[in-house]
Amino acid sequence: MPTAIRDQGLGIGFAVLFVGALVGQSFAGLSVYNEDQLAHGSSPLGYWDFVTSSNFVVDVAENWQSEYLQFFLFIFATIWLVQRGSPESKKPGDEGTETDENQLVGRFSKPNSPKWAKAAGWRRLVYSNSLLLVMGTIFLLSWWLQSVAGTVVFNAEQLEHGQPPVRWIEYVTSADFWDRTLQNWQSEFLAVGSMVTLSIYLRQRGSAESKPVGTPHAETATESE
Fold it and tell me: What integer pLDDT is reported at residue 220 of this predicted model?
């Protein structure tokens, strides 16, 4: 395997899985949508018309916003909260944003550290929080896209049943919107909580998400570094 591909294997692997799953979802979703259209005496859609429709967009955006909310909250929580024994946590006592020396910023930076880590003022502040800022921005954009596309889909169903359409603000405060949203959120929170706690007692040899197999349960991964 070429070195460039091997060194980027994790990112490339998940990019391929993502594209494959998204394409698969588009074809499966098109089939389900067209079956429903025919059952109601309506015309089926072509592939391009479907993947640019609100019906497809709302399902994709709904999943994206919940995933990025999960990442945003987990990154933020691990600044201040710890879980003894979990490889997903800093060791107890290391809560907080840590010192400049720990974080290798300013005069403690290395020659090959990122330029903004060496800088002072707003650039260091922005770069020090750039992961949260990007994750939060993607979450908000996905949430907004879900809400807009969801309003269109909801209003189409309203018209089919002879009901008046609703405004965006009415939809995002409706039970329908929060039913769809909270279904995704609760599963994300369960998955993160399970990973944090199960990894205290269970192991996967060779995985960066697991402690070494022989590490005592109560020892947080960073304590052995």
Answer: 85
Q: What is the pLDDT of residues 104-127, one digit of tens each?
A: 999 999 999 999 999 999 999 999
**Cα–chain-centroid distance for residue 137?**
11
| Entry pTM | 0.88
List of long-range contacts for 145-148, beta carbons under 8 Å, 24+ apart: 145/57, 145/61, 145/65, 146/58, 146/61, 146/62, 146/64, 146/65, 146/181, 147/171, 147/172, 147/177, 148/54
Residues 178, 184, 189: CA angle, nearest 5 degrees: 115
> Measured at the alpha carbon of residue 143, what is the angle toward residues 137 and 149, in degrees to the nearest 5?
135
Question: What does the block give as tokens for 191?
Answer: 């998955």
* Confidence bin at 45 (pLDDT 50/70/90): very high
Mean of per-residue pLDDT scores for the chain: 92
Please give the Cα distance from 132 to 76 (Å, whole number).
7
155 pLDDT exceeds 80?
A: yes
3-state secondary structure 10-27: HHHHHHHHHHHHHHHHHH
Q: What distance in Å separates the CA atoms of residue 201 and residue 217, rounded to the nearest whole number?
A: 6
Which residues lie closer than 8 Å to 211 by C-beta, 6 or more apart?
87, 199, 203, 219, 221, 224
Alpha-carbon distance of 152 to 166, in angstroms, equals 9
